[in-house]
TrEMBL record:
Gene that this polypeptide is encoded by: coaBC
Domain DNA/pantothenate metabolism flavoprotein C-terminal: 197-420
Assigned protein family: In the N-terminal section; belongs to the HFCD (homo-oligomeric flavin containing Cys decarboxylase) superfamily. In the C-terminal section; belongs to the PPC synthetase family.
Origin: domain of life: Bacteria
Pathway: Cofactor biosynthesis; coenzyme A biosynthesis; CoA from (R)-pantothenate: step 2/5; Cofactor biosynthesis; coenzyme A biosynthesis; CoA from (R)-pantothenate: step 3/5
Name this protein carries in UniProt: Coenzyme A biosynthesis bifunctional protein CoaBC
Transmembrane segments: none
Gene Ontology biological process: coenzyme A biosynthetic process; pantothenate catabolic process
HAMAP family: CoaBC
Length: 425
Protein backbone atom coordinates (compact mmCIF):
# COMPACT_ATOMS: atom_id res chain seq x y z
CA UNK A 1 0.00 0.00 0.00
CA UNK A 2 1.23 3.53 -0.84
CA UNK A 3 1.05 5.87 2.15
CA UNK A 4 1.86 9.57 2.32
CA UNK A 5 2.95 10.67 5.78
CA UNK A 6 2.63 14.41 6.26
CA UNK A 7 4.56 15.88 9.19
CA UNK A 8 3.54 19.21 10.71
CA UNK A 9 5.80 21.67 12.49
CA UNK A 10 5.44 20.66 16.13
CA UNK A 11 7.69 19.16 18.79
CA UNK A 12 5.71 15.91 18.48
CA UNK A 13 7.22 15.40 15.01
CA UNK A 14 9.79 13.06 16.57
CA UNK A 15 6.98 10.58 17.34
CA UNK A 16 6.16 10.41 13.65
CA UNK A 17 9.50 8.69 13.10
CA UNK A 18 8.12 5.82 15.20
CA UNK A 19 4.87 5.90 13.21
CA UNK A 20 6.87 5.73 9.97
CA UNK A 21 8.69 2.67 11.29
CA UNK A 22 5.36 0.95 12.05
CA UNK A 23 4.17 1.59 8.50
CA UNK A 24 7.35 0.37 6.82
CA UNK A 25 7.70 -2.72 9.04
CA UNK A 26 4.14 -3.63 8.05
CA UNK A 27 5.31 -3.67 4.43
CA UNK A 28 3.90 -0.34 3.20
CA UNK A 29 5.68 2.09 0.88
CA UNK A 30 5.77 5.48 2.60
CA UNK A 31 6.52 8.90 1.13
CA UNK A 32 7.16 11.51 3.81
CA UNK A 33 6.19 15.13 3.15
CA UNK A 34 7.36 17.35 6.01
CA UNK A 35 6.35 20.99 6.20
CA UNK A 36 9.19 23.47 6.13
CA UNK A 37 8.64 24.25 9.82
CA UNK A 38 8.76 20.58 10.79
CA UNK A 39 12.31 20.21 9.46
CA UNK A 40 13.40 22.44 12.37
CA UNK A 41 12.45 19.50 14.63
CA UNK A 42 13.30 16.46 12.48
CA UNK A 43 15.55 16.80 9.44
CA UNK A 44 14.99 15.54 5.92
CA UNK A 45 17.89 13.07 6.26
CA UNK A 46 16.03 11.23 9.04
CA UNK A 47 12.92 10.80 6.92
CA UNK A 48 14.90 9.62 3.91
CA UNK A 49 16.87 7.11 6.00
CA UNK A 50 13.74 5.66 7.64
CA UNK A 51 11.54 5.61 4.54
CA UNK A 52 14.18 4.67 1.97
CA UNK A 53 12.73 7.32 -0.35
CA UNK A 54 13.66 10.87 -1.35
CA UNK A 55 11.95 13.56 0.72
CA UNK A 56 10.99 17.10 -0.24
CA UNK A 57 8.45 19.75 0.70
CA UNK A 58 9.03 21.84 -2.44
CA UNK A 59 6.28 21.96 -5.07
CA UNK A 60 8.97 22.63 -7.69
CA UNK A 61 11.02 19.56 -6.81
CA UNK A 62 10.95 16.89 -9.56
CA UNK A 63 8.67 19.02 -11.71
CA UNK A 64 8.80 16.46 -14.51
CA UNK A 65 6.95 14.01 -12.25
CA UNK A 66 4.28 16.60 -11.30
CA UNK A 67 4.58 15.52 -7.66
CA UNK A 68 1.87 17.83 -6.33
CA UNK A 69 -0.65 15.89 -8.44
CA UNK A 70 0.93 12.42 -8.61
CA UNK A 71 1.44 11.87 -4.87
CA UNK A 72 -2.18 12.53 -3.99
CA UNK A 73 -3.49 10.38 -6.82
CA UNK A 74 -1.24 7.42 -6.03
CA UNK A 75 -1.72 7.45 -2.25
CA UNK A 76 -3.96 4.75 -0.82
CA UNK A 77 -3.88 6.65 2.48
CA UNK A 78 -2.62 10.03 3.70
CA UNK A 79 -1.78 10.44 7.39
CA UNK A 80 -0.77 13.81 8.84
CA UNK A 81 0.96 13.56 12.23
CA UNK A 82 1.40 15.85 13.97
CA UNK A 83 -1.30 18.11 12.54
CA UNK A 84 -0.75 21.58 13.99
CA UNK A 85 -3.44 24.22 14.40
CA UNK A 86 -1.99 26.06 11.40
CA UNK A 87 -1.96 22.95 9.23
CA UNK A 88 -5.56 22.11 10.14
CA UNK A 89 -6.55 25.68 9.26
CA UNK A 90 -4.78 25.56 5.90
CA UNK A 91 -6.30 22.17 5.07
CA UNK A 92 -9.79 23.37 6.03
CA UNK A 93 -9.31 26.50 3.93
CA UNK A 94 -8.17 24.53 0.90
CA UNK A 95 -4.76 26.20 0.77
CA UNK A 96 -2.22 24.90 -1.73
CA UNK A 97 0.98 26.71 -0.80
CA UNK A 98 3.35 23.76 -0.29
CA UNK A 99 3.70 20.12 -1.35
CA UNK A 100 1.71 18.73 1.57
CA UNK A 101 -1.35 20.95 1.15
CA UNK A 102 -1.43 20.44 -2.61
CA UNK A 103 -1.19 16.68 -2.07
CA UNK A 104 -4.10 16.84 0.38
CA UNK A 105 -6.22 18.60 -2.25
CA UNK A 106 -5.44 15.84 -4.74
CA UNK A 107 -6.20 12.96 -2.34
CA UNK A 108 -8.49 10.22 -3.63
CA UNK A 109 -8.11 7.83 -0.68
CA UNK A 110 -8.83 8.32 3.03
CA UNK A 111 -7.07 11.13 4.91
CA UNK A 112 -6.32 10.95 8.64
CA UNK A 113 -5.17 13.89 10.77
CA UNK A 114 -3.61 13.36 14.22
CA UNK A 115 -3.64 16.79 15.90
CA UNK A 116 -1.02 17.97 18.40
CA UNK A 117 -0.91 21.44 19.92
CA UNK A 118 -1.36 23.29 23.20
CA UNK A 119 -4.72 22.93 24.92
CA UNK A 120 -5.79 26.52 24.28
CA UNK A 121 -5.08 26.11 20.55
CA UNK A 122 -7.06 22.86 20.36
CA UNK A 123 -10.03 24.31 22.27
CA UNK A 124 -10.07 27.61 20.35
CA UNK A 125 -13.27 28.15 18.40
CA UNK A 126 -11.34 28.58 15.15
CA UNK A 127 -9.61 25.22 15.50
CA UNK A 128 -12.82 23.45 16.45
CA UNK A 129 -14.57 25.01 13.42
CA UNK A 130 -11.74 23.83 11.16
CA UNK A 131 -11.93 20.29 12.56
CA UNK A 132 -15.72 20.25 12.12
CA UNK A 133 -15.34 21.44 8.51
CA UNK A 134 -12.80 18.73 7.71
CA UNK A 135 -14.90 16.00 9.31
CA UNK A 136 -17.99 17.18 7.41
CA UNK A 137 -16.06 16.55 4.18
CA UNK A 138 -15.21 12.98 5.13
CA UNK A 139 -11.72 13.68 6.47
CA UNK A 140 -10.83 11.64 9.55
CA UNK A 141 -9.57 13.73 12.48
CA UNK A 142 -8.48 12.04 15.70
CA UNK A 143 -9.07 13.68 19.03
CA UNK A 144 -5.75 14.47 20.69
CA UNK A 145 -4.68 12.65 23.82
CA UNK A 146 -4.64 14.29 27.24
CA UNK A 147 -1.31 14.52 29.01
CA UNK A 148 1.94 16.39 29.46
CA UNK A 149 2.62 18.96 26.73
CA UNK A 150 5.68 21.05 25.99
CA UNK A 151 6.83 22.78 29.16
CA UNK A 152 4.74 22.46 32.35
CA UNK A 153 1.37 22.37 30.58
CA UNK A 154 -0.97 19.38 30.84
CA UNK A 155 -4.25 18.88 29.03
CA UNK A 156 -5.84 17.83 25.75
CA UNK A 157 -3.52 18.42 22.81
CA UNK A 158 -0.92 15.67 23.11
CA UNK A 159 -0.25 13.58 19.97
CA UNK A 160 -1.80 10.10 20.35
CA UNK A 161 0.78 7.33 20.65
CA UNK A 162 2.11 6.03 17.30
CA UNK A 163 0.55 2.59 17.84
CA UNK A 164 -2.89 4.16 18.21
CA UNK A 165 -2.47 6.29 15.07
CA UNK A 166 -1.24 3.23 13.18
CA UNK A 167 -4.21 1.14 14.30
CA UNK A 168 -6.68 3.90 13.40
CA UNK A 169 -5.05 4.34 9.99
CA UNK A 170 -5.10 0.63 9.18
CA UNK A 171 -8.75 0.39 10.21
CA UNK A 172 -9.68 2.95 7.55
CA UNK A 173 -8.42 0.99 4.55
CA UNK A 174 -10.94 -1.90 4.35
CA UNK A 175 -13.76 0.37 5.51
CA UNK A 176 -12.96 2.95 2.84
CA UNK A 177 -12.75 0.30 0.12
CA UNK A 178 -16.18 -0.98 1.14
CA UNK A 179 -17.65 2.51 1.30
CA UNK A 180 -18.41 2.19 5.03
CA UNK A 181 -15.72 4.43 6.52
CA UNK A 182 -17.09 6.80 9.18
CA UNK A 183 -17.07 10.52 8.55
CA UNK A 184 -14.61 10.91 11.40
CA UNK A 185 -12.48 8.84 13.72
CA UNK A 186 -12.05 10.08 17.27
CA UNK A 187 -9.80 8.35 19.74
CA UNK A 188 -10.98 8.65 23.34
CA UNK A 189 -9.01 11.26 25.20
CA UNK A 190 -6.42 9.85 27.58
CA UNK A 191 -4.86 10.98 30.82
CA UNK A 192 -1.33 10.27 31.95
CA UNK A 193 -2.65 7.08 33.55
CA UNK A 194 -4.60 6.00 30.50
CA UNK A 195 -8.28 6.67 29.90
CA UNK A 196 -8.58 5.27 26.35
CA UNK A 197 -11.24 2.81 27.57
CA UNK A 198 -12.92 5.14 30.04
CA UNK A 199 -16.59 4.23 30.43
CA UNK A 200 -16.17 0.86 28.70
CA UNK A 201 -16.95 -2.52 30.25
CA UNK A 202 -14.38 -5.19 29.44
CA UNK A 203 -14.72 -8.93 30.07
CA UNK A 204 -11.50 -10.98 30.04
CA UNK A 205 -11.12 -14.75 30.35
CA UNK A 206 -7.74 -15.92 31.65
CA UNK A 207 -5.80 -18.95 32.86
CA UNK A 208 -5.94 -22.61 31.89
CA UNK A 209 -8.93 -24.88 32.36
CA UNK A 210 -8.59 -28.24 34.10
CA UNK A 211 -10.71 -31.24 33.13
CA UNK A 212 -11.02 -33.82 35.95
CA UNK A 213 -10.26 -37.50 35.36
CA UNK A 214 -10.95 -38.59 38.92
CA UNK A 215 -10.97 -36.87 42.34
CA UNK A 216 -7.20 -36.19 42.22
CA UNK A 217 -6.19 -36.04 38.55
CA UNK A 218 -7.02 -33.73 35.66
CA UNK A 219 -6.13 -32.88 32.06
CA UNK A 220 -4.67 -29.40 31.91
CA UNK A 221 -2.33 -27.13 29.98
CA UNK A 222 0.72 -24.97 30.61
CA UNK A 223 -1.06 -21.62 30.76
CA UNK A 224 0.07 -19.45 33.69
CA UNK A 225 -2.56 -16.72 33.30
CA UNK A 226 0.15 -14.03 33.07
CA UNK A 227 -1.04 -12.61 29.76
CA UNK A 228 -4.67 -12.49 30.89
CA UNK A 229 -3.70 -10.68 34.09
CA UNK A 230 -1.55 -8.24 32.09
CA UNK A 231 -4.52 -7.53 29.82
CA UNK A 232 -6.72 -6.84 32.82
CA UNK A 233 -4.14 -4.48 34.30
CA UNK A 234 -3.75 -2.64 30.99
CA UNK A 235 -7.52 -2.29 30.57
CA UNK A 236 -7.86 -1.02 34.15
CA UNK A 237 -5.08 1.51 33.54
CA UNK A 238 -6.99 2.65 30.44
CA UNK A 239 -10.03 3.41 32.57
CA UNK A 240 -12.20 0.36 31.84
CA UNK A 241 -14.53 -1.43 34.20
CA UNK A 242 -12.95 -4.90 34.09
CA UNK A 243 -14.32 -8.33 34.94
CA UNK A 244 -12.05 -11.39 34.80
CA UNK A 245 -13.40 -14.94 34.58
CA UNK A 246 -10.38 -17.08 35.34
CA UNK A 247 -9.46 -20.74 35.47
CA UNK A 248 -6.18 -21.91 37.03
CA UNK A 249 -3.50 -19.18 37.23
CA UNK A 250 0.04 -19.18 38.60
CA UNK A 251 -0.10 -15.46 39.34
CA UNK A 252 -2.25 -13.29 41.56
CA UNK A 253 -5.52 -11.98 40.14
CA UNK A 254 -5.40 -8.30 39.10
CA UNK A 255 -6.30 -5.81 41.79
CA UNK A 256 -9.27 -3.62 40.90
CA UNK A 257 -11.03 -6.13 38.65
CA UNK A 258 -14.20 -8.04 39.44
CA UNK A 259 -13.32 -11.74 39.61
CA UNK A 260 -15.11 -15.03 38.99
CA UNK A 261 -13.28 -18.33 39.39
CA UNK A 262 -14.03 -21.45 37.31
CA UNK A 263 -12.24 -24.74 36.75
CA UNK A 264 -13.44 -26.53 33.63
CA UNK A 265 -14.17 -25.51 30.05
CA UNK A 266 -17.90 -26.08 30.58
CA UNK A 267 -17.87 -23.86 33.67
CA UNK A 268 -15.98 -21.17 31.74
CA UNK A 269 -18.49 -21.45 28.90
CA UNK A 270 -21.49 -21.03 31.20
CA UNK A 271 -20.00 -18.06 33.03
CA UNK A 272 -18.85 -16.31 29.85
CA UNK A 273 -22.09 -16.71 27.90
CA UNK A 274 -24.08 -15.59 30.92
CA UNK A 275 -22.06 -12.39 31.32
CA UNK A 276 -20.89 -11.47 27.81
CA UNK A 277 -23.97 -9.59 26.65
CA UNK A 278 -23.43 -6.71 29.07
CA UNK A 279 -19.87 -5.86 27.96
CA UNK A 280 -18.49 -3.54 25.29
CA UNK A 281 -15.39 -5.70 24.81
CA UNK A 282 -14.86 -9.43 25.33
CA UNK A 283 -11.25 -10.68 25.35
CA UNK A 284 -10.99 -14.47 25.27
CA UNK A 285 -7.44 -15.01 26.58
CA UNK A 286 -8.03 -18.21 28.58
CA UNK A 287 -6.35 -21.42 27.44
CA UNK A 288 -9.42 -23.63 27.09
CA UNK A 289 -9.00 -27.41 26.84
CA UNK A 290 -10.14 -28.70 23.45
CA UNK A 291 -11.12 -32.06 24.97
CA UNK A 292 -12.36 -33.48 28.28
CA UNK A 293 -12.73 -37.04 29.57
CA UNK A 294 -15.96 -38.66 28.43
CA UNK A 295 -16.52 -39.85 32.00
CA UNK A 296 -15.10 -38.94 35.40
CA UNK A 297 -14.20 -41.73 37.79
CA UNK A 298 -15.87 -41.35 41.17
CA UNK A 299 -12.79 -42.84 42.84
CA UNK A 300 -9.09 -42.50 42.23
CA UNK A 301 -8.01 -44.58 39.25
CA UNK A 302 -5.76 -47.27 40.71
CA UNK A 303 -2.43 -48.35 39.29
CA UNK A 304 -2.27 -52.11 39.73
CA UNK A 305 0.05 -54.76 38.36
CA UNK A 306 -2.84 -57.14 37.77
CA UNK A 307 -4.92 -54.78 35.59
CA UNK A 308 -4.43 -53.33 32.13
CA UNK A 309 -3.53 -49.68 31.63
CA UNK A 310 -6.65 -47.51 31.61
CA UNK A 311 -8.01 -46.18 28.33
CA UNK A 312 -9.33 -42.64 28.60
CA UNK A 313 -11.93 -41.63 26.06
CA UNK A 314 -12.10 -37.92 25.26
CA UNK A 315 -14.94 -35.78 23.95
CA UNK A 316 -14.71 -32.37 22.31
CA UNK A 317 -15.36 -29.27 24.39
CA UNK A 318 -17.58 -26.54 22.91
CA UNK A 319 -15.90 -23.65 21.08
CA UNK A 320 -16.64 -20.80 23.48
CA UNK A 321 -15.27 -18.06 21.22
CA UNK A 322 -17.51 -19.14 18.33
CA UNK A 323 -20.49 -19.21 20.69
CA UNK A 324 -19.73 -15.71 22.00
CA UNK A 325 -19.58 -14.42 18.40
CA UNK A 326 -22.88 -16.16 17.61
CA UNK A 327 -24.46 -14.73 20.78
CA UNK A 328 -23.44 -11.22 19.72
CA UNK A 329 -25.08 -11.70 16.33
CA UNK A 330 -28.25 -13.20 17.80
CA UNK A 331 -28.63 -10.34 20.27
CA UNK A 332 -27.55 -7.69 17.72
CA UNK A 333 -24.95 -6.38 20.16
CA UNK A 334 -22.46 -3.63 19.38
CA UNK A 335 -19.49 -5.41 20.86
CA UNK A 336 -15.82 -5.97 20.05
CA UNK A 337 -14.64 -9.56 20.46
CA UNK A 338 -10.96 -10.47 20.70
CA UNK A 339 -9.69 -14.04 20.52
CA UNK A 340 -6.29 -15.53 21.32
CA UNK A 341 -4.59 -18.29 19.38
CA UNK A 342 -1.55 -20.21 20.61
CA UNK A 343 -0.43 -21.88 17.40
CA UNK A 344 2.31 -24.17 16.13
CA UNK A 345 3.38 -24.86 12.58
CA UNK A 346 3.88 -28.28 10.98
CA UNK A 347 5.03 -29.78 7.69
CA UNK A 348 1.81 -28.57 6.05
CA UNK A 349 1.87 -24.87 6.95
CA UNK A 350 3.22 -22.28 9.39
CA UNK A 351 1.62 -21.04 12.59
CA UNK A 352 0.46 -17.72 11.11
CA UNK A 353 -1.36 -19.42 8.23
CA UNK A 354 -3.21 -21.65 10.67
CA UNK A 355 -4.08 -18.58 12.74
CA UNK A 356 -5.47 -16.69 9.73
CA UNK A 357 -7.67 -19.66 8.88
CA UNK A 358 -8.78 -19.85 12.52
CA UNK A 359 -9.74 -16.14 12.48
CA UNK A 360 -12.06 -16.75 9.54
CA UNK A 361 -13.66 -19.76 11.26
CA UNK A 362 -14.12 -18.04 14.59
CA UNK A 363 -15.46 -14.74 13.24
CA UNK A 364 -14.07 -12.58 16.06
CA UNK A 365 -12.96 -9.02 15.25
CA UNK A 366 -9.35 -9.45 16.32
CA UNK A 367 -7.17 -12.51 16.89
CA UNK A 368 -3.98 -12.21 18.94
CA UNK A 369 -1.60 -14.88 17.69
CA UNK A 370 1.56 -16.27 19.24
CA UNK A 371 3.61 -19.27 18.27
CA UNK A 372 4.09 -21.68 21.16
CA UNK A 373 6.45 -24.56 21.77
CA UNK A 374 10.15 -24.86 22.59
CA UNK A 375 12.27 -21.80 21.87
CA UNK A 376 15.85 -21.70 20.62
CA UNK A 377 17.19 -22.32 24.13
CA UNK A 378 14.83 -25.24 24.72
CA UNK A 379 12.60 -23.28 27.12
CA UNK A 380 8.93 -22.66 26.47
CA UNK A 381 8.41 -19.76 24.06
CA UNK A 382 5.22 -18.37 25.66
CA UNK A 383 3.65 -20.41 28.45
CA UNK A 384 4.88 -19.39 31.88
CA UNK A 385 7.27 -16.78 30.49
CA UNK A 386 7.29 -13.08 31.33
CA UNK A 387 7.61 -12.00 27.70
CA UNK A 388 5.60 -12.59 24.56
CA UNK A 389 5.62 -11.86 20.84
CA UNK A 390 2.33 -11.62 18.98
CA UNK A 391 0.62 -10.49 15.82
CA UNK A 392 -2.84 -8.96 16.04
CA UNK A 393 -4.88 -10.05 13.04
CA UNK A 394 -8.12 -8.31 12.03
CA UNK A 395 -11.14 -9.97 10.44
CA UNK A 396 -11.70 -6.95 8.17
CA UNK A 397 -8.27 -7.38 6.61
CA UNK A 398 -6.52 -4.45 8.31
CA UNK A 399 -2.74 -4.72 8.42
CA UNK A 400 -1.59 -6.93 11.31
CA UNK A 401 -0.10 -5.14 14.31
CA UNK A 402 3.00 -6.69 15.87
CA UNK A 403 3.91 -6.44 19.54
CA UNK A 404 6.75 -7.94 21.54
CA UNK A 405 8.33 -7.50 24.94
CA UNK A 406 6.93 -8.05 28.39
CA UNK A 407 3.42 -9.44 28.60
CA UNK A 408 2.29 -6.07 29.97
CA UNK A 409 3.85 -4.32 26.95
CA UNK A 410 1.96 -6.69 24.66
CA UNK A 411 -1.23 -6.10 26.66
CA UNK A 412 -0.85 -2.33 26.34
CA UNK A 413 -0.60 -2.67 22.56
CA UNK A 414 -3.69 -4.89 22.44
CA UNK A 415 -5.61 -2.33 24.50
CA UNK A 416 -4.47 0.51 22.21
CA UNK A 417 -5.68 -1.39 19.15
CA UNK A 418 -9.01 -2.09 20.86
CA UNK A 419 -9.41 1.60 21.81
CA UNK A 420 -8.70 2.69 18.24
CA UNK A 421 -11.25 0.20 16.90
CA UNK A 422 -13.93 1.33 19.34
CA UNK A 423 -13.38 4.97 18.49
CA UNK A 424 -13.62 4.25 14.76
CA UNK A 425 -16.93 2.37 15.06
Amino acid sequence: MNIVLGVGGGIAAYKSALLLRLFTEAGHAVTVIPTQASTKFVGVATWEALSGRPVSNDVFHAVDQVNHVRLGHEADLIVVAPATADLLARAAGGHADDLLTTTLLMARGPVLFAPAMHTEMWQHAATQANVAALRSRGVHVLDPAVGRLTGPDTGPGRLPEPELIFAAAMALIPAHAAGTAPASVALPTTTAAGGALSGKRVLITAGGTREPLDPVRFLGNKSSGKQGVALAEAALAAGADVTVIHAHMDVAAPAGAKLQSVETALELRAATLSAAGTFDVVIMAAAVADFRPASISSGKIKKRDDTADPVINLVRNPDILVEVVAHRAAQNLKQLIVGFAAETGDDQDDALSYAEAKLQRKGCDLLVVNEVGPGDSGTERVFGQDSNQVQILALDGATPVQASGSKRTVADTVVRVIAARLSAS
